[in-house]
Each structure stands twice: as structure tokens, then as C-alpha cells.
């Protein structure tokens, strides 16, 4: 189970999403140094959302425990969607279309911070991790907070990787995108199935 949790957390965090694409484009256009304010906003907002996801999920499980099965199905559907979108994705989909808004956001802490509260990818990422992997094993508040920080560390590390790698990561994905997409898609399918084992 913890192997599935690790695969789920790392792969989901590394997949293209609003944070990773924004970080990639910002560092490509403005450089890593000029993107630090935006990245700090993303990191702070991500951590806040993971803590909120922990308490929100715990409230649902304590008050409406029958929803756990539905959350597992929601998580599995989301993983299947991610697997499909990754396997069928093309390099051109990794670009952010509105380049002007990306360059404006490159030094804006608050845009990076508030993006997290509408970033469906990380909200479902947190809820799925807590409902499917963490709460079935642990109930202690301090352990839940450690997992929230751990999920934040994984997610923020993935965004940092996209930012620091910048154009080189983009070129690598363009060159080898079919193999990478298939491998990541298969691992996500494994994670979806493992929720019910």
C-alpha cells in the first residue's frame, strides 16, 4: 500500500498541471532567479491547501464515513483520467497559451498563492491521498499534519524540478514524450487499481 502511495504522490506531483507548467514557462521566460517570488507563492499556497485537505477529509470521514467509498471512486476516476490524458498527450499541450499572463505572474507571490485554491489537480491530489492511503491507517493529528507537510514537500519539489530544469525538461519531453507518457500512464493505472485491493 505504501508503495502505491509513493507512486501516486510522486507521479501525480510530477505530471503537467497548472503549477508545473507555470513554473516551467516562468523559468524559461524570466529565468529561475526572477521566478522565485512566484514559486514561493506556489509553495506556500500548496502547503496551505494540503493542510486544509487533511482537515476537510477528516471532517468528511468523521461525520460522513460512508463517503469514504465515494472518495475512493472519485480518486480512481481522477487517476484514470490522468492516465488517459498523459498517454494521449502531445508536447504542444505542455505550453501555456497565454504567455503574457505567465510573464506577468513570474514575480507575483499572490498569483502563485491563490492559484492553489482553484487548482483542482492538487485539491483532488490531497483528498485522494488522505482518504485512500492515510486515514485508513492513521487518525492522530500530528501524524496527519506530518503527511500534509510530506505531500507538500513532494508537490513543491516537483514544481521546483520543472522550474529549475526549464527548457531542458521541455526539450526532453518533446523528444521522448511517447515513451514517458505510456510509462507514467501505466503506473497511474496501477495506482487506480490498487485503491481497491
UniProtKB/TrEMBL annotation:
InterPro entries: LeuE-type (IPR001123). The chain crosses the membrane at residues 39-61, 70-87, 113-135, 142-164, 176-196. The lineage of its organism: Bacteria, Pseudomonadati, Bacteroidota, Flavobacteriia, Flavobacteriales. It is found in: Cell membrane. Keywords: Cell membrane, Membrane, Transmembrane, Transmembrane helix. This is Lysine transporter LysE. It is a multi-pass membrane protein. It comes from Chryseobacterium viscerum. PANTHER family: ARGININE EXPORTER PROTEIN ARGO (PTHR30086), ARGININE EXPORTER PROTEIN ARGO-RELATED (PTHR30086:SF20). Its main location: membrane. The keyword Cell membrane applies.
Amino acid at each position: 500500500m505504501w508503495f502505491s502511495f509513493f507512486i501516486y504522490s510522486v507521479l501525480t506531483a510530477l505530471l503537467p498541471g497548472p503549477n508545473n507548467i507555470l513554473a516551467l514557462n516562468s523559468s524559461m521566460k524570466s529565468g529561475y532567479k526572477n521566478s522565485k517570488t512566484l514559486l514561493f507563492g506556489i509553495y506556500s499556497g500548496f502547503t496551505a491547501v494540503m493542510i486544509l485537505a487533511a482537515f476537510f477529509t477528516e471532517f468528511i470521514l468523521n461525520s460522513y464515513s460512508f463517503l469514504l467509498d465515494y472518495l475512493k471512486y472519485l480518486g480512481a476516476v481522477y487517476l484514470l483520467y490522468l492516465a488517459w490524458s498523459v498517454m494521449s498527450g502531445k508536447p504542444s499541450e505542455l505550453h501555456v497559451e497565454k504567455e503574457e499572463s505567465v510573464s506577468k505572474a513570474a514575480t507575483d507571490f499572490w498569483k502563485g498563492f491563490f492559484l492553489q485554491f482553484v487548482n483542482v489537480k492538487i485539491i483532488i491530489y490531497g483528498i485522494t491521498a488522505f482518504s485512500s492511503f492515510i486515514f485508513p491507517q492513521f487518525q492522530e493529528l500530528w501524524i496527519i499534519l506530518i503527511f500534509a507537510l510530506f505531500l507538500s514537500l513532494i508537490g513543491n519539489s516537483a514544481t521546483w524540478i520543472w522550474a529549475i530544469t526549464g527548457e531542458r525538461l521541455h526539450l526532453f519531453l518533446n523528444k521522448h514524450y511517447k515513451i514517458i507518457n505510456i510509462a507514467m500512464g501505466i503506473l497511474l493505472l496501477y495506482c487506480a487499481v490498487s485503491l481497491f485491493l
